[in-house]
Amino acid sequence: MVLKPVAVVVLCAIILAFGTADTEAKCGYKSCPATSSKNLNIHLVPHSHDDVGWLKTVDQYYYGSKTGIQRAGVQYILDSVIDELQKDSKRRFIQVESAFFFKWWDEQTSSTQKIVKKLVDNGQLEFTGGAWSMNDEAAVHYQSIIDQFTIGLKRLQETFGECGRPRIGWQIDPFGHSREMASIFAEMGFDGEFFARMDWVEKNLRLKNISAEMIWKASPSLGESSDIFTGELYNHYSAPPDLCFDVLCQDDPIIDGTSSDNNVNKKVDYFLEYTRNMSTYYRTKNLLVPMGDDFNYQSAGMNFKNMDKLIKYVNERQNYGSKVNVFYSTPSCYLKSLYDDLETWPTKTEDFFPYSTDGHSYWTGYYSSRPTQKGFERYGNHFLQVNKQLSVLGGLDGAGPKANLENLRHAMGVMQHHDAITGTEKQKVAQDYDKLLHGAIHGCETNTKLALQKLTNITRGEFVSCHLANISMCTFTANAESFVVTLFNPLGRNSKQYVRIPVVNGTYVVTDKSGKTILSDVVPVPSSVLKIPYRINKTQHELVFEASVTKIESYYVKRTSKPKTREVPAWFLKTKIHRETSHYNIIERHHEERAVKAPAPAPAPAPAPAPAPKVTIVENSNVRLNFSSSGKLQAVRMNGVDQVINQDFYYYRGARGNNAEFKNRSSGAYIFRPNGTEVLMASKVNLTVFKGKLVQEVHQNFTNWCSQVIRIYNNSSRVEFEWLIGPIPINDNMGKEVITKITSPIASKGVFYTDSNGRDMMKRTLNGREFFKANLTEKVSGNYYPITSRIALEDDKTRIALLNDRAQGGSSIQNGSLELMLHRRLLSDDAFGVGEALNESAYGEGVIARGKYYLVISPTTKRFSTVEREMVHEIHLPFWKFFSSNGKDSKVNVPSIPNFSSLPAGIHLLTFEPWSDNEILLRLEHFLDATESSGISFSIRPIFDELKASSVKETTLDGSMDLGDLKRLKFFEHGSKVKKDQYIKAQHTPLKASKKDKDSTFILKFKPMQIRTFIFKKK
């Protein structure tokens, strides 16, 4: 084919524009447009905020289906933007969510991928944020945050090299911001972060005081290494009013030329006035103006054509004395301009919770929305950590296992999205999230089976997981006379934990690998659990024993006989009983008469129970619980402390459904707005005590939809509360938000403490804020905070802490009290976008939720705060149970594997996973803060040798940059002397060693709260 002259010219233009792969990249700060010291510089930042699920599912958003719900198709955004960027090298665009980008990328031809790489290399397409999704900051756990940034940043690094690495955190839509999230950004090497949501009172005050941009000192323990520049956007993350040029907007385009509708002067005048006003609230001559919104740029030509005109006509005004210079830019280029301005900045030390948009709208309901989904996310993270570790230990390097693990990583990344883990999505979207995670977990069961068959030599082991054990169901154990339970410990230290296994009634013998009999109990499943409509009631009991596991241990279970009495049917557990068996003692007291009609034939009348004592005491060597004549907890003795403690259930009333007065002023998926004070659930409760050799349980029924089990185990200094709530009744046309509350006479003086994403503890003061006086017209919701793992209060003598198993909202509304919100069912939407009430249902009824929290009472000393942190790790990552048939080959000892026994106390194994071919990533964490510990030194050589590594290097937190290359922009706070070209670098000499190096090379020193990341290269 002979090219025509015009075609030759076009081809040459393309070659000149996109060059070859060898052309030196000019991305990042090198590609930033020049600014003018004489003018006000307006950085236009084209962007699209693309939720990874919200009103539509992830795939519906990507493919653009279900337009009747929302017109949004991410594939068209990327197609259109890439086309438009090629037309002018000055145009810019930022891409945020890696989940969407790589779904699109994998569909592209090699020629399109080359074009995209060139756009990245010259800085036109810049990745900002870069995690798999834009995660929430309240309900997420720090381990999951790090994981989902790791997969996004790793893929960007592998695909685009250094030019693909984001420099800016772009958390524009989460509903409040955590200090730990800021610290994580800093430790990953980000130079700054921007967001758009801040309490309305605080934002107005910060703008007035010119302090909307600041240095966030994100960790009292880590110091400067966790400091990060942080900025609040001026007009949410939207384009200026009247200047949205997207196909989804109603604003007029810029009309120039000879048209009678010419509006150039009007648009330019407005823009100049808008930016002039904006400049009065910011410190420098540089302003960041976002140009985009939710799912904008599906027809990017409209946006860029009008922005081209805006830039042209605004800059032409400089010929007539205007001092405004506008150009395409990115958040990183804006930040670099601030850095070059040598300005000083105010500081921030706490967080941005709770978030409110007016005096009656505190976004604190989502801390607890969809508790079953929040529990499932935590379960998914647990299984992900188990899979990552077993993939390394079992040497799973085939394509299938790698794909399975990656799929689970991606599903968990999606679950961190700020409309997923938060519970602020539509019901059908929530179900799709569950489907994605369930499928990924199921796929990874193949991995765990393969690994354990290699590691334990139980070559025919099924290694089944019982995913319904949360409601005491397990098909495998229900149908087995004997079986093996293989326990995997994801922690980096030996741990002793109690194991509970759903079983049928009978007597059981448990033995360890040496054949030694292990003490065990068989206890009944609570009657309220047996009554769950969709539960198969074959496993009506649970086998309990204590296991000690370093990394992998197998225990062998055999049912030796059936009980002399027949299996206790569910209807019998509803009647008044007083009986003893060889497995447990039962003492049941009823305080509310309930007529229960038993099916025919009815059993013989049971003997009448003895008169109930006024006080019931349940105790072991460590803990004593006192229950009053009302059947409720009234006092606890623990850790040498005797404390009056009352525990009860209440609910806050939501607005009545179908009531126009509350249509836009009610609790919803986002908002917690109680209608009055809390309502006590029951004044008296049913109480049943089960006394075993290892565990003692108190079963309480507060109502026919609210019950709990209170447990104490031998040699354990905490009290376990396992609650079951639902279906929450709505026959009174009233939504309800259920809480558990612990009350005590402790003089806490309005002060309590909550965790930040599972790490640092934050001091909270009732009605208090760091920067401003809150407009607390909502006294309860305005004092609610996210509780990811722990909430506590204390006086000078006694401390009380609650450790929870999933994200929840909580507070201390009265002195000496702690409360956690457990479940919510509401009948009205809160009018913040989701468009439906938080009225979850399953199997035709309201959702039933079951979960746990733990009570710890201790003297007020730092030692017990340390103990709480250790407990939190066991609660977050307990033993994972795998079940196999008890075959002939099941008692072969576990071969020697790396078990991290060399790690000292205070060091936590955070991550152990395959990184790339012949590489392993290891994260270790000093989990105590500066008030609880000083630095810890130890040698990593034993782990290096156990892994048979040839070399090791230290990286930033995310794993994709050598720590020695860290060079973050340093900003200066008020009162300090500004110096040019200052950077924050690694605070210690990064580890880099090989097998031949001296043992002293491998000695590490960890500062309190420090996480260090290493990549080991195998031989």
Describe this structure in words.
The chain is α+β, with helices and mostly antiparallel strands. It folds into five domains: 5-130 and 166-353, Glycoside hydrolase 38, N terminal domain (7-stranded beta/alpha barrel), CATH 3.20.110; 363-465, Up-down Bundle (Substrate Binding Domain Of Dnak, Chain:A, Domain 2); 467-578, Golgi alpha-mannosidase II (Immunoglobulin-like), CATH 2.60.40.1180; 584-596 and 611-877, Golgi alpha-mannosidase II, domain 4 (Beta-galactosidase, Chain A, domain 5), CATH 2.70.98.30; 907-1018, Immunoglobulin-like (Sandwich), CATH 2.60.40.1360. It is 23% helix and 29% strand. It has a ten-stranded antiparallel β-sheet. The relative contact order is 0.11.
- Indicate the CATH architecture of the largest domain: Alpha-Beta Barrel
The CATH class of the largest domain: Alpha Beta
User: Which stretches are poorly predicted, pLDDT < 50 over at least 5 residues?
Assistant: 1-22, 564-607
- Please, how many helices? 18
Using the alpha-carbon principal axes, give the shape: globular
Assembly form of the protein? single chain
Fold-level CATH name of the largest domain: 7-stranded beta/alpha barrel
Percentage of residues in strands: 25-35%
Sheet having the most strands: 10 strands, antiparallel
Radius of gyration: 30 Å
Mean pLDDT comes to: 91
Strand order of the largest sheet: 21-28-29-30-31-42-37-36-33-34
Instruction: Kindly state the number of beta strands.
Output: 53
Number of structural domains = 5
> What's the helical proportion of residues?
10-25%
Class by alpha and beta content: alpha+beta
Distance between the termini: 52 Å
CATH homologous superfamily placement of the largest domain: Glycoside hydrolase 38, N terminal domain
